[in-house]
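Thread: Leucine-rich repeat-containing protein 31-like, structure

OP (GT): Posting the sequence first so everyone is looking at the same thing. Length is 253 residues per the record. Can we get the structure tokens written out before standup tomorrow? I want them in the notebook alongside the other entries.
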Amino acid sequence: MAELALSMGGLENLTDLDLSHNKDLSGNAKTWASCLKTLTHLRSLEMQDCGTESRDVKYLAKAISEMGNLMDCNFSGSQVELDVSSSDSLIRLTIRSGSFRTGDIGEDMADILQSLCNRVDLVSLILENIYGLSDSVTLWTPVLSKLTHLEELELYGCSLQSTDIEHLAVALSQMPALRELSLKDNWSLGGSAESWAPSLEKLRYVRHLNLDNCALTEEDMRHIHEVRERCSPWKLSCGLYGLIERSMTHDWL
């Protein structure tokens, strides 16, 4: 892979490249990802079904951060996907995984976020089903705060705990462009809003907070609503799932 990237680096007309289904690249991006930056004219790169593993992601993110012309790419395996899509010269980056090694996820995520600081065109970041983030929030949230150009952040199903919200809110309070925050599918937040809702006061830039499918009770909603009344008027979307066998959706303007 390294030799291939180097040989194509001087091809100015090479803007789209598809290397999908090369499963021999699995697990060793450390050895070849840095060579991708020689493809300076590349705008689209497809590497689907290449056996991408969690240990590859930080090296791929580093490469993406150094490829300023790259606007669309996909790296995927059976359990991990790293996807970049573009719109109006701005990019959205998504990482989906349930297989990050818990002991490494904090440091890996900090490295990933540090790399992404170089992409000032990154306006949306989605982290989906990355278990272990809650065990290492003190490692990666300080770096998250450096993404001051980010407009949208989604942390889907990452098993966030009540104690994580304060650290997250402190980081987000330093991100003036952030308008959309989604914490949906973090079921572990349910039943404990009394302890974490006060931290929401720090979300001074957020205009829409999504807490769908967080197993919130009506008691949780009272604490959240009290905070909302005292601070910025964000739009709040929540699906409530309590002991009753029905759901209730609140969407406050």
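GT: Both are above now. Quick notes for whoever picks this up: The CA atoms of residues 17 and 45 lie 5 Å apart. The radius of gyration is 19 Å.
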